[in-house]
Design brief:
By secondary structure, the protein is mostly helical. Helices cover 59% and strands 5% of the residues.
């Protein structure tokens, strides 16, 4: 935590991945990047849950479109004895944002 904020530092990792582009297998680079994001996001969720004294974590966002990251987050949270909840009716990312914007627009018309 930095200045009361949970921050996933990606600058050095992105620099490392960029430097590896012509030196390593692209699939390995992509896998490492996905695992780094999935682990970092999940560790922050666990930290927040512990700090707030909760055992249920709501997950959402465009990163959940990525099946590897989504599955990793769910498994990691379960292994940490946290319950992950997420929308099954609404798509993560832009689809969910569009739906929310439509609902707000409709509420202003009625």
């Amino acid at each position: 935590m930095v200045n009361d904020r949970y921050i996933l530092k990606t600058g050095k990792t992105l620099e490392l991945l960029t430097n590896l582009l012509n030196k390593a297998n692209r699939y390995d680079i992509m896998a490492f990047g996905q695992k780094y994001l999935a682990h970092g996001i999940t560790q922050m969720a666990c930290d927040v849950a512990e700090d707030q004294g909760v055992n249920v974590v709501a997950i959402s966002g465009g990163v959940l479109v990525n099946e590897y990251i989504s599955n990793y987050i769910q498994r990691y949270l379960e292994n940490a004895n946290l319950t992950a909840i997420y929308s099954k009716e609404m798509p993560p990312g832009d689809g969910g944002i569009s739906l929310g914007q439509s609902m707000i627009a409709l509420s202003n018309v009625i």
